[in-house]
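User: My advisor, Dr. K., asked me to get a structural model of this assembly before our group meeting. I'm new to this, so sorry if the format is off. These are the inputs:
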Amino acid sequence: MSSEKISKPARGKVTIDVEECKGCGLCIESCPPKCLELAPELSHYGVHPARYTGEDCTGCGICFYCCPEPGAIRVYRLAHATVPPTAATGGEHAAAV
Ligand code: SF4
Ligand code: SF4
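Assistant: The format is fine. Below is the predicted structure of the whole assembly, which you can bring to the meeting.
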């Protein structure tokens, strides 16, 4: 049996401003899919800032609400293209792209 991870389109994305992050780790503890971590390098505050691992963010926003630093975290919910319209799904009414 294969143990390969089934890749799904990302539902969210998060960015962290290292100039605002104080490295408290609350976002890392609160993230359900555990897709945040502390960077190994130090910021100019002398702390390890949080960073996104680059995968599995769901866009839930929990990290945003946990963070005590206004503006440190931005969460994006990603929109995905819907199934291409077909005759059976009323494709004749689909908007031109
Ligand atoms: S939005 Fe949710 S899933 Fe994404 S990094 Fe924040 S807590 Fe984790
Ligand atoms: S909760 Fe905010 S301040 Fe704390 S590590 Fe995460 S981004 Fe940085």
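One thing worth pointing out at the meeting: Residues 12, 14, 30-33, 35-36, 57-63, 75 surround iron/sulfur cluster (ligand 1) (CB under 6 Å).

User: Perfect, thanks a lot.
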